[in-house]
Write a structure and sequence with these properties.
This protein has 7 helices and 15 strands. The protein has 306 residues and is an alpha+beta fold. The protein has one domain.
């Protein structure tokens, strides 16, 4: 059972519901910080966060809005993925951020496979180009296979072992992105897996604390194969998608750097399969220019999103 956890100065209360209600101020709290849908402490918390963390909260909010739009009548992977990527694009487009001591610009472009093809290779590929001062640019690919939680159930029925093994042959660091319509606290936090821990949680107005929550999580496909789970127990080895994107992918971690994997990611290996969506992300330290990619997206097969 996925539950919510809140507490006040006198101890924790555990519920049997799978999310926060409006009387909890509509907080959706990621492991990167706090955000509010209803004002209140939002401005105060914004002043305490770096721009990079603030963007992470905006992305988390956009993802949650997309999930709400799709559930329950459009609860299908392609619809959810489209809503999620649209929200991320709106949050990221043209942003210049502060990351550590450096100003960083992030550009985000989406490409969709134009037409139907015999073989697909995953739902989303993030092609991440990182340009740092005084360093050689690096291009890596993050392969993501989207799965949705079943309506009125705890399972992810579309997980297929054969498909997972085929993806891992090219992309051993590939992840499942798990779409849930409920908020969950069951994932790996910065302190490790501790779904009910409250000792290190921050406390907000009225001495009421909130555990981090998310609706979209990422778990390694190889971990899912190892434990054979096809339900919410996968959350035990998962991170919120926003955390995976901002603190892993955009920092050059968990990416594939081999030429064969990059060629598949950019849509140049039709015999191995074509990703349904390609997301090109340029992360550049201030003053650095993006050079033409050594492996560009195959625009003969993909059309650029708006």
């Amino acid at each position: 059972m996925i539950s919510w956890v809140s507490w006040n100065g006198q101890g924790a209360r555990r519920g049997r519901r799978s999310g926060f209600s409006d009387n909890c101020w509509g907080f959706a709290v990621s492991v990167l910080g706090f955000g509010s849908n209803k004002g209140g402490c939002g401005f105060f918390m914004e002043r305490m966060m770096s721009a990079w963390s603030h963007l992470a909260i905006e992305i988390e909010s956009a993802i949650n809005s997309g999930i709400a739009e799709c559930y329950p009548y459009a609860w299908e992977e392609n619809h959810i993925t489209h809503a999620m990527l649209g929200g991320i694009r709106s949050a990221v487009r043209g942003r210049k951020l502060v990351h550590g001591r450096e100003a960083v610009s992030v550009e985000f472009e989406t490409y969709k496979l134009d037409g139907r093809y015999e073989k697909n290779f995953g739902d989303i590929v993030f092609l991440v180009n990182i340009v740092r001062k005084g360093q050689k640019p690096i291009l890596g690919a993050a392969f993501v296979e989207a799965k949705r939680r079943s309506l009125n159930g705890l399972r992810y029925p579309e997980i297929r072992v054969q498909q997972a093994r085929r993806i891992l042959k090219v992309a051993p660091r590939a992840f499942y992105v798990l779409y849930d319509y409920d908020f969950t606290t069951r994932f790996v936090s910065q302190e490790g897996f501790d779904p009910w821990g409250i000792n290190d949680r921050r406390v907000l107005k009225g001495r009421t604390g909130f555990a981090p929550v998310a609706k979209v999580l990422c778990t390694p496909i190889n971990a899912a194969l190892a434990n054979s789970y096809k339900d919410v127990r996968l959350y035990n080895q998962a991170l919120p998608f926003t955390t995976q994107l901002m603190t892993r992918y955009l920092c050059g971690l968990d990416l594939e750097y081999g030429n064969d994997a990059l060629a598949v990611a950019a849509g140049w290996r039709e015999n191995k399969g074509l990703p349904k969506q390609i997301v090109r992300i340029d992360v550049c330290e201030d003053g650095e220019e993006v050079e033409a990619s050594s492996i560009p997206v195959n625009v003969e097969l993909y059309r650029r999103g708006e």
